Amino acid sequence: MPYFLFSATDPHGKPITENVEAGNLSQARYKLELRGHSEIEFLSGELAADVTNMFEDSVAEKLAENPELQAAFLYDTTTIGYLKVMLKLTAIIWVPFTIWVLWSGSTWSYVAFGLFWAAFVYLSLPSILYNKITESVFMARITAARFWIGAARLFNVISIVKLPTSELDHKSACIDAMSGNLPAAMTRLAKYRNDPKVSRRLHLSHLYTVNEYGRDFDEALKYQAMTLKEGNEFPEELVDHAMMLARRKGEVTKARELISTALEKEASVLTAALVPLAQGIVEVEGGNFELAEFYLTNAERKLEPFRNVGLVGPISELKAFLAIVQRSKGKTDEADRLAAEARPFLVAHREAELLARATG
User: Fold this and answer.
1) What global pTM score does this model have?
2) CA distances from residue 235 to 13, 34, 116, 267, 314 in whole angstroms, order as listed
3) Residues of the chain under the 50 pLDDT cut
4) Can you give the pLDDT at residue 23?
5) Which residues neighbour 186 within 8 Å (Cβ) at sequence distance 6 or greater?
6) Which residues lie closer than 8 Å to 132 by C-beta, 6 or more apart?
7) Which of these, 308, 311, 306, 322, lies nearest to 354 by C-alpha position?
8) Helix 142-158 with 165-178: angle, nearest 10 deg
């Protein structure tokens, strides 16, 4: 692995200039943070920009093309955020179009303007519907999720641009599992076992999430492990598996090994934020609260900018585990605040055991 030259302040407040060995710049900075270094500066101009972004090279190239829009897509996946980004992307069309309509003032121009915005809304609906479905499922809003899934199925009947039926069935299966009907959920997914349009890896990952929602963690871990054996082991999947092993089985040693493997792989800024969360959870389950606090506060700082609906769960779990740590140190007020913020998600997803630990 390459070496990176850096200057920093060590945990004792002493300035140092050394080399660190790492697979890439993101890993280099992360390793130094784990050692307790602060004020880290890499002694190369072209490296500093990459460290600031903390994206893998392929993502950094896309960000260079249009950093504001790419960052918006990555961080904010709410419906409003999506529409803002799409309006910016299409500004080169609708801004001159709007000026022309106002200048022309003809009936035909107003009709064309209305048709343009109707087409914009029509093409945006699949993404909006999927965001609504995903948000409802993540927050265990069962009635809302069923409504949005039904709306998406109706939209598919009349639309040329369709949402994948396999994804709608997967989200429906998640709702079945949350409602306590795991057999129905598994039956719903069974038809995709040999479907050529659905990869085996995707099918296994769907089986994993459905069993997790159904709280059959042995089956969930089995399918998660099978997913990892299908081709590449993506770092976010390794991190997720590590958290599952630590939380549901108490296998902290195996979880640490998986996190170490994940750190050796190229990771996005989001995955880099989830790694310390996984490490913090593992250390809480291992009873090492001091180290757990370091990891969890690091994860809290890195996850703060994200408004991705898929992160509601991880952020709530982070607060719950941080509450456990704070309570162990006698900081009950801070623990109560964190537990209260985590409560809505934990209650919705029947995480009674974790909530009880967080509230003491």
Assistant:
1) 0.70
2) 33, 18, 42, 6, 16
3) 44-60, 62-63, 67, 69-73
4) 67
5) 173, 207, 210
6) 79, 144, 148
7) 322
8) 160
